[in-house]
């Protein structure tokens, strides 16, 4: 159970006690400031009866005690613990006893002040010795200090045992609360970005026939808010951390993907993310000039690791183009346009006289998904350049046309089932034939002005073949889309990109299939993710095992998955808003609706979305008809 309000985390098991084992503890900026917080009442540990996430940044634990065994089996003291990501632990004892109680309460505290990475690798040191400090305890080591203060102050503190002690008087039906505040020395109260009035994310709401819908949207937005971080050099700009607990910093490609999927919540997150990454863009002359740097990541068993910097560089102009259509102000667009032009210039320079965008490493493959990203960047970038009165759009469209022609000839593997797209072309020209979720990027063509989807790399017949493959049991696990087909060599249901269900790619598949008119396949994947989300308390993890769904079963959690994760939380927004098919063109003052006509979840309504900088509300009836209920003044419904 992970409470998040970055840079604060609190990681717990369902028992509620922090024992110092594993990852348990309070963290600030990646350092564990408290690892042990164990409570005893009248010499005994409360019996844990419930643990649940109350919000993205708060977990609630309830335990019970019998202070008088002669009174029968019913507990007469309830111990409620509310644990917050900001480093606060609020412990309340409620008495149901018929007589006054005087209860000794002891809390044992400890920490190693270890870095999260050291804890994960098993190399954290022993607990440190505490010293009494004000109304609590303090720990010190060469890398920092941390302290716990208590309110009310304890009646006794024993530093050698890390023990704080109270004698609490509870009248019949009465309550007493002890509050602990944990923080590094010198650090003020945690001010999470997502809790500020200046949060870039709209507090949208959903309602409808399916009660899972409002819960998923609410939790997804809470998780996005919890993962928001300010740029240290430019505090007005915010971006999403990749996920907790493992990736609490910037991952350029993930941040751009999540900001794009979250555009229905406003353009502020996209603007901040783009500004932050524009400042990292490589400007020195050379083959990398114009790139957004990014680390390498695993690409599964059939391909070498890929450069996420390539993906980020191609996502940058596409996000800027779509953010402008959703209502990004002209001034912000103009400010970011030079960086987008440099990304597009890098694309054209890297392709050179060839047709395909190859991996940047020598002798690397030509990946299918990279061509999809490049094609989308070219078409959306050309649209952006034309709209802003810049040159270069015609050349980008001409190259995109050449890429489409070549791709359709070079990247399709014919077979008796109608064929499939190749995952990549090896340096010797041979095709890498495995079927994986990366193929969904061929359906994600992007949005142009007037509510039109950009053309894709596949023709209509081959798009249909791909849709049928994605909807087959080989790819659709019943819980979402597998990262690798179940019949492919190297399939592993827990494989990060070798069979696990990744929410980001499943959401892209649902949106792409729905836009292309393949509602049956889109609906099956959507329902699978909704069912999985319910088992995860509507907080979708980054990924989970791609085992086949069975009657009465549940998806298996992945032990290394971030939860919450930026792309998974943003995917929850995309999955649901896809049902309304919102396609804005704010500069033209119009919005087009292309709802899923089959209305697979019955009636659904959204309030508090943002289009053209103003609240936007839309409802889709059980007949699949969409109606705008609130919009910016002058915004016209397109056809």
From TrEMBL:
Top-level lineage group: Bacteria
GO BP terms: carbohydrate metabolic process
Pfam families: GDE_N_bis (PF14742)
Domain Putative glycogen debranching enzyme N-terminal: 10-181
InterPro entries registered for this protein in UniProt: 6-hairpin_glycosidase_sf, 6hp_glycosidase-like_sf, GDE_N_bis
Protein name (Swiss-Prot/TrEMBL): Glycogen debranching protein
Protein source organism: Streptomyces hawaiiensis
Source organism phylogeny: Bacteria, Bacillati, Actinomycetota, Actinomycetes, Kitasatosporales
């Amino acid at each position: 159970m992970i409470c998040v309000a970055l840079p604060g985390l609190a990681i717990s098991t369902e028992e509620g006690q922090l024992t110092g084992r594993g990852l348990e503890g309070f963290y600030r900026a990646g350092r564990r400031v408290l690892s042990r917080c164990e409570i005893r009442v009248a010499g005994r540990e409360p019996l844990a009866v419930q643990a649940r996430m109350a919000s993205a940044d708060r977990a609630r634990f309830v335990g019970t005690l019998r202070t008088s065994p002669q009174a029968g089996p019913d507990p007469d003291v309830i111990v409620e613990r509310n644990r917050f990501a900001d480093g606060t632990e609020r412990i309340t004892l409620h008495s149901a006893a018929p007589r006054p109680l005087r209860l000794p309460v002891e809390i044992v505290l400890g920490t190693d002040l270890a870095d999260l990475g050291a804890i994960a690798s098993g190399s954290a040191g022993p607990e440190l010795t505490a010293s009494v400090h004000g109304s609590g305890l303090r720990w010190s080591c060469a890398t920092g200090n941390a302290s716990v203060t208590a309110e009310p102050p304890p009646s006794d503190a024993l530093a050698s045992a890390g023990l704080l002690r109270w004698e609490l008087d509870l009248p019949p039906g009465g309550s007493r609360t002890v509050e602990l505040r944990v923080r590094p020395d010198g650090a003020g109260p945690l001010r999470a970005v997502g809790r500020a009035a200046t949060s870039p994310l709209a507090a949208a709401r959903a309602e409808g026939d399916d009660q899972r819908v409002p819960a998923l949207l609410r939790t997804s937005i809470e998780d996005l808010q919890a993962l928001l971080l300010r740029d240290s050099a430019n505090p007005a700009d915010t971006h999403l951390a990749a996920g907790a607990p493992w990736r609490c910093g910037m991952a350029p490609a993930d941040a751009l993907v999540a900001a794009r999927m979250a555009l229905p919540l406003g353009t502020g997150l996209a603007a901040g993310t783009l500004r932050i990454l524009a400042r990292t863009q490589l400007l020195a002359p050379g083959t990398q000039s114009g790139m957004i740097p990014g680390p390498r990541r695993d690409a599964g068993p059939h391909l070498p690791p890929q450069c996420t910097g390539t993906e980020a560089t191609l996502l940058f102009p596409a996000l800027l183009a779509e953010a402008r259509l959703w209502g990004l102000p002209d001034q912000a667009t103009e400010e970011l346009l030079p960086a987008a032009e440099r990304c597009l210039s890098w694309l054209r320079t890297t392709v050179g006289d060839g047709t395909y965008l190859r991996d940047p490493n020598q002798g690397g493959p030509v990946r299918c998904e990279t061509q999809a990203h490049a094609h989308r960047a070219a078409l959306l970038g050309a649209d952006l350049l034309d709209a802003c009165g810049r040159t270069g759009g015609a050349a980008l469209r001409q190259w995109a046309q050449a890429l489409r022609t070549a791709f359709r000839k070079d990247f399709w593997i014919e077979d008796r089932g109608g064929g499939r797209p190749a995952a990549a072309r090896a340096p010797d020209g041979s095709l890498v034939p495995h079927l994986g979720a990366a193929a969904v990027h061929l359906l994600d063509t992007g949005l142009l002005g007037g509510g039109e989807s950009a053309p894709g790399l596949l023709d209509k017949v081959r798009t249909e073949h791909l849709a049928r493959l994605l909807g087959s049991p080989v790819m659709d696990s019943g819980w979402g889309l597998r990262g690798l087909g179940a019949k492919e060599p190297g399939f592993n249901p827990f494989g990060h990109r070798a069979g696990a269900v990744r929410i980001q790619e499943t959401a892209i598949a649902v949106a792409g299939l729905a836009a292309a008119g393949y509602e049956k396949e889109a609906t099956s994947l959507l329902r699978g993710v909704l069912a999985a989300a319910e088992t995860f308390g509507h907080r979708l993890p980054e990924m989970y095992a791609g085992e086949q769904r069975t009657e009465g079963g549940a998806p298996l959690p992945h032990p290394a998955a971030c939860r919450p994760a930026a792309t998974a939380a943003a995917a929850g927004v995309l999955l649901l808003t896809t049902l309304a098919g919102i396609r804005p063109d704010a500069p033209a003052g119009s919005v087009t609706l292309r709802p899923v006509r089959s209305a697979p979840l019955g009636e659904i309504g959204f309030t508090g979305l943002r289009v053209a900088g103003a609240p936007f509300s839309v409802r889709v009836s059980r007949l699949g008809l969409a109606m705008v209920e609130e919009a910016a003044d002058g915004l016209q419904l397109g056809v």
